[in-house]
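Journal club prep — side note

Before the paper discussion, L.F. wants everyone to see what a predicted structure for a comparable chain looks like in token form. Sequence:
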Amino acid sequence: MSGAEPEPKQFAVPAAGRLAGEVVGEGPAIVLLHGLTASRRYVVHGSRLLPRRGFRAVSYDARGHGASDPAPEDQGYSYAELAADLGAVADRFAGARRFVIAGHSMGAHTLAAYALGAADRIAAVVLIGPTFLGAAVSEETLAYWDRLADGLEQGGVEGFVAAYDHDLEPRWRENLLRITRDRLAVHRHPAAVARALREVPRSRPFEGLAELEFLDLPALVVASYDEADPGHPYAIAAAWAERLPRASLISEKPGTSPLAWQGGRLSREIAAFCELPEVAERLAA
């Protein structure tokens, strides 16, 4: 293994506008999908471990996020549209070869929506912090997302932070607010992010958890304990792992920083999962 740090190469994929991203390394592709209001950095948080382990890490900004274009006027931010974008990126970097997808929150839902229609193309999936249970989203939850959208539209980053800064666990509050400011600052189209804040929670990646039983793929589900990350409940991740036929569930130790926030450790877990014989054989097929 070379001691040189792999360098990212920027790319743009034409898909309902332009999706901006980067690819690092050579080998089987692992496509990384971020969550709502985040950008491509916020899956493995800058870790280069995956390319050092022989994988090609492909990450991109979802439509309207980061450096990617907003949705066209006749489109929006539904999971069907987000899954179609994923398909365009997969066509570019995997072609006819199978690949792995790892997604956090919105990214986990996007990959599930995509995988349910394209399981033969996928070697394995890594689902980090899913939040969808199949039931209709409550009016209270939708009002929360609308409040964040209003804050971003009316007050920019600080307006969003003010709307977000309610009932945060004191131990994690300063860290959460710092991360929130950092990740919101990279968006070139804040109005598009505000629109996504309204539309993504109103979209359904699939009808109900029973559909996950059709995803007969190796799956790694990454959970976080609710003390630090109540927005991604442990119980929901556990419910996904129970429904997926070939899933394992992992998490951080109670009382420690969520595994989803630890880029290096999360990358090690993803790499180890992809090196399992059942995944490696599917990648090589």
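L.F.'s comment for the group: The longest strand covers residues 18-24. Keep this in mind when we get to the figures.
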